[in-house]
Amino acid sequence: MDILLLITVFLFLIPIFLLLARRKKSSNRLPPGSLGMPIIGQSLGLLRAMRVNTAEKWLEERIRKYGSVSKLSLFGKPTVFIHGQAANKFIFTADGSTITSQQTESIRMILGDRNILEMRGNDHKRLRNALMLFLKPESLKQYVGKMDKETRKHLETHWHGKQQVKALPLMKILTFNIMCSLLFGLEQGTRRDELVECFQQMIEGMWSVPVNFPFTRYNSSLKASKRVQNMIKELISEKRAELEQKTISPLQNLVTCLLSIRNDDNEEVITEKEILHNIMLIMVAGHDTSSVVLTFLFRSLANEPAVYEALLQEQEEIAKSKSPGEFLTWEDLAKMKYTWRVAMETMRITPPVFGGFRKALKDIDFDGFLIPKGWQIFWATSMTHMDDSVFPEPSKFDPTRFENQASVPPYNFIPFGAGHRVCPGYEFARIEILVVIHYMVTQFTWKLCADNKFSRDPMPVPTQGLPLEIRPRKPC
């Protein structure tokens, strides 16, 4: 009887011992580091470093202390930080069964959970294919004229007749106006002004600790997000009615394009919620990233006279080939090769997107460590952009680095992502930047009125919004 009892107890304890051993083994394989305080973790430390423009140093200190892979807690979730070319390749080539895009809780709650960054598998493919009907180069060719028109109108209103301007706020106004025109067909007026005001409030708390207390940035952004969503819902309803009455073209703007996609049973393929959340995502991506790149392009050109002269020469040759009042064309943009290299070098040194997040869908082995299922994965763009083994003298501004893009190893230059996860709005941003820079350099000269410092919130924000002293140029 005693022997039988001992055997029973032994058999009962075996799985417990195995489970404990497995947990100990898994714990030993976790990356080094600390998760810090519950919910807050290292979030405040990272945000503080970003705001004083020491985020890269903050990460470099982690790398020196813990190595190339480390654990921490960001925005309420246990996180593994990875960096380098191998990390970028892993992030941008992993299939949907291993990791998935997952923004921070604050971003997901503000922008919605049915946008393309939150989707995977067939849903991701369906949404990407739908968005690419509007964002692919063949479709964007017809929108160059609209961007041209909005840019000229903006310069006439906000630049001509002025002696000093602030670049970043004005670029945000311009890119938002372009987005309103091409996403909704929403022209200038009180409705657009109300939308931009709510939109600016919404994006202020996108990278914040997701604690919904009154008077916090997160709380204010959530309230603004609801107002923005209600305005966009009204616009979607209006465009649906216009399509049904056949008073508007399916390719008029992004909303009409998405509403017009039908299956074999003539049913809408993209739900209204998906249209709403993806419109909000594209508004943020197209407005914030492009305005930041344009602002830092002004700074780069002011700091690099030789680069400015070479870019101006390219743009003047294009301007001379145009008749008075004639819009830029797709063919004109194709000639702006040096200008785009300057833009890429600007994005290399000051990437508009600091980094991003993914979610592990299962236990993952990476570089000898375990990334547990459900954990967040964090990567940072600038860690490879400033790698001197890839970009010699990385602090030097040198657009010739991109004369032969094949010479840049893959997964090192990633301002728009890479692989099958490359940003679908890449061509949209390229066209927007080239159109705006053409008119800026052919119509104005400028010099900086403040220092070259900037902070991140989470995108780079130059001191005082980059004030410029401007003068009109004589026509070519």
TrEMBL record:
Main location: membrane
Keyword check for Iron: yes
Source organism per UniProt: Prunus dulcis (Almond)
Family matches, as Pfam families: p450
GO CC list: membrane
Protein name, as recorded: Cytochrome P450, family 716, subfamily A, polypeptide 1
InterPro entries: Cyt_P450 (IPR001128), Cyt_P450_CS (IPR017972), Cyt_P450_E_grp-I (IPR002401), Cyt_P450_sf (IPR036396)
Keywords annotated in UniProt: Heme, Iron, Membrane, Metal-binding, Monooxygenase, Oxidoreductase, Transmembrane, Transmembrane helix
GO biological process assignments: sterol metabolic process
UniProt cofactor(s): heme
Membrane topology: Single-pass membrane protein
Keyword DNA-binding among UniProt keywords: no
Residues at which heme binds: C423
Sequence similarity: Belongs to the cytochrome P450 family.
Annotated localization: Membrane
GO molecular function, one term: heme binding
